Amino acid sequence: LVIDNRDDFLDFLEKLLDNGYKDMTLNYIENVMPHFWANDRFIKLQEKLIGFKSEIKT
């Protein structure tokens, strides 16, 4: 997978999460954290993923 645009990459991550690929999304997030840590969309994506993980536990 080659994506050379930050917004396209974030779109890709959002679509992964929206389609139920939580573990794959988490893997990508963990790997790109140093490059996106201050990006608002990235932060919202992390929060959304955390929300999904909390739903699973309850």
UniProtKB/TrEMBL annotation:
Any one Gene Ontology molecular-function term assigned to this protein's record: kinase activity
Domain of life the protein comes from: Bacteria
UniProt keyword terms in alphabetical order: Kinase, Transferase
Protein name: Histidine kinase
Provenance organism: Campylobacter jejuni
